[in-house]
């Protein structure tokens, strides 16, 4: 009996991927998930723009494949295709210096045109991939949302393209790709097609709306977020669309890279440990306390925030209770950059209480790992959080998260149960500063008065598997189901 499975080909389209370029969680996903999916039965490759911000050491290793024209409305634009293998996965890079040789990767005046070009180039590139034709096109966020639209409206006549299936993953519904509807004719070339109506939202064109209507399957990055986006509060005016596609909507939890985040082998930290040697964790705290000019003591709990400083992350709640934090028997370190009002608030309190609060308004990957290893607890009180990675990273390092019960935060953190002593962190329900303060006080009470439960939670958190292995299994099943193999 022949049990060998037929190989499934997947092309994973994203605007960013580590280690080439990352601005948020999407970059982590695109850089890590394909390596976990890839196997003898799954050939998954990634395609992204050849952005000028990609480090030169990677650009120098790229191999040129071919150049060709990409039709975009009434114009035909140059496109070069490069490839590079990383962690066993083939990455393709779409080159056009007019669109991608910019100081900024996002936020340009012509983003609508740049993204349309990339989406079209993804499809044109398939014909130049030397024998690789995907069974499944996996598109991510609004930057690739037009790929399923173009595929169905303009590429069905290309041999083999009529068999390609599409998955679209929503990483953050807040950003949908909204532009003037003049792009439908001038740039997209979709006037008087069915897509003309499917993409419109009033006098605007909405790229993500097109993907939700045209993709075979829609996924998002946690089971709870998949439920939330079907409601008006979280649906960003698209809850009706998600409800209409509910039978095709899946919530698949993101993972983290256990090789990158490993307290036993992390090169960024001096004192290594595992769940079996977790007592060594305190040495990282003592070292960081000394560097920050805090009181150096393992008996003083160190809390941390590592985040983009934006409204989404619930920082209004944190800044509201900073006076109470300053009064508590605790220390706080904040690492991140973002909105000026949050940066100023953290800096002011750090200036007033330099031995208790530290505000490091910067991005530093190595330092963030040191903070994960040093801290006792970690704030993630988000207003909404599709998945969230920081709480999973914190747990990997035995640092207990304090989260609001939304999206992936609810799916990953088991709240402390004072009766059984079980849990992997602390949580609260409503977006309310008093609830956050009450939860903080609860965590302080456990830290000071119930060391046994605190240690039990640390070990439980470290031993919980939030690696990409689990997500990869689910995606493999979806890919094979779509490909019909």
Q: What's the SSE blueprint?
A:
Layout: E1 8-13, H1 25-37, E2 42-49, H2 56-59, E3 63-72, E4 75-86, E5 89-95, H3 97-100, H4 111-126, E6 136-140, H5 146-154, E7 165-170, E8 178-180, H6 183-186, H7 194-199, E9 200-201, E10 204-206, H8 207-214, E11 217-220, H9 223-228, H10 239-244, E12 249-251, H11 281-291, E13 302-306, H12 315-320, H13 322-327, E14 331-335, H14 340-352, E15 357-360, H15 365-374, E16 377-380, H16 390-396, E17 400-404, H17 407-412, E18 426-428, H18 433-449, H19 451-463, H20 468-483
Parallel strand pairs: 1-2, 1-6, 2-5, 6-7, 7-11, 11-12, 13-14, 13-16, 14-15, 16-17, 17-18
Antiparallel strand pairs: 3-4, 4-5, 8-10, 9-10
Helix pairs in contact: 1-20, 4-5, 5-8, 11-15
Unreliable stretches: none
Assembly type of the chains comes to single chain
**Distance from first to last alpha carbon:** 17 Å
Helix-strand makeup class? alpha/beta
Percent of residues in helices: 25-40%
Give a written overview of the molecule.
Helix 4 packs across helix 5 and helix 5 crosses helix 8. The chain has two domains: 263 residues, Glycogen Phosphorylase B (Rossmann fold), CATH 3.40.50.2000; 188 residues, 3-Layer(aba) Sandwich (Rossmann fold). The protein has a nine-stranded mixed beta sheet with strand order 3-4-5-2-1-6-7-11-12, with helices on both faces. Strands 15-14-13-16-17-18 form a six-stranded parallel beta sheet, with helices on both faces. The chain has 20 helices and 18 strands.
């Amino acid at each position: 009996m022949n049990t060998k499975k037929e190989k499934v080909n997947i092309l994973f389209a994203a605007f960013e991927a580590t280690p080439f370029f990352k601005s948020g969680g999407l970059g982590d996903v695109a850089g890590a998930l394909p390596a976990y999916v890839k196997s003898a039965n799954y050939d998954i490759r990634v395609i992204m723009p050849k952005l000028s911000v990609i480090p030169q050491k990677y650009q120098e290793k790229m191999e040129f494949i071919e150049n060709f024209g990409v039709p975009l409305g009434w114009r035909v634009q140059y496109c070069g295709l490069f490839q590079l293998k990383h962690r066993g996965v083939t990455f393709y890079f779409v080159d056009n210096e007019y669109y991608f040789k910019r100081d900024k990767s996002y936020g340009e005046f012509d983003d609508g045109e740049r993204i349309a070009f990339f989406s079209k180039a993804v499809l044109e590139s398939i014909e130049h991939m030397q024998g690789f034709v995907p069974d499944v096109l996996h598109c991510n966020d609004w930057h690739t949302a037009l790929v399923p639209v173009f595929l169905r409206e303009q590429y069905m006549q290309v041999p083999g393209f009529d068999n390609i299936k599409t998955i679209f993953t929503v990483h953050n519904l807040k950003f949908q790709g909204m532009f003037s509807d003049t792009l439908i004719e001038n740039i997209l070339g979709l006037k008087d097609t069915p897509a003309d109506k499917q993409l419109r939202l009033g006098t605007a064109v909405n790229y993500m709306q097109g993907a939700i209507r045209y993709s075979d399957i829609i996924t998002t990055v946690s089971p709870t977020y998949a439920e939330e986006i079907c409601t008006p509060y979280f649906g960003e005016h698209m809850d009706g669309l998600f409800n209409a596609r509910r039978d095709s909507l899946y919530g698949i939890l993101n993972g983290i890279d256990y090789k990158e985040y490993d307290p036993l082998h992390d090169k960024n930290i001096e004192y290594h440990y595992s769940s079996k040697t977790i007592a060594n964790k305190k040495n990282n705290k003592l070292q960081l306390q000394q560097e920050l000019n805090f009181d150096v003591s393992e008996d003083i709990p160190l809390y941390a925030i590592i985040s983009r400083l934006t409204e989404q992350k619930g920082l209004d709640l944190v800044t509201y209770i900073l006076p109470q934090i300053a009064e508590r028997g605790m220390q706080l370190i904040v690492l991140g950059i973002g909105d000026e009002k949050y940066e100023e608030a953290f800096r002011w309190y750090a200036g007033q209480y330099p031995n208790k609060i530290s505000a490091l308004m910067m991005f530093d990957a190595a330092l963030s790992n040191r903070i994960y290893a040093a801290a006792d607890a970690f704030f993630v009180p988000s207003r909404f959080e599709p998945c969230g990675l920081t709480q999973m990273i914190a747990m990997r390092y035995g640092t207990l998260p304090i989260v609001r019960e939304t999206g992936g935060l609810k799916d990953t953190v088991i709240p402390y149960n004072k009766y059984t002593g079980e849990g992997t962190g602390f949580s609260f329900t409503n977006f309310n500063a008093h609830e956050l303060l009450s939860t903080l006080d609860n965590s302080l009470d456990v830290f000071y008065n119930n060391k046994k439960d605190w240690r039990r939670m640390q070990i439980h958190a470290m031993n919980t598997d939030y690696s990409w292995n689990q997500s990869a299994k689910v995606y493999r099943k979806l890919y094979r189901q779509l490909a019909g193999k």
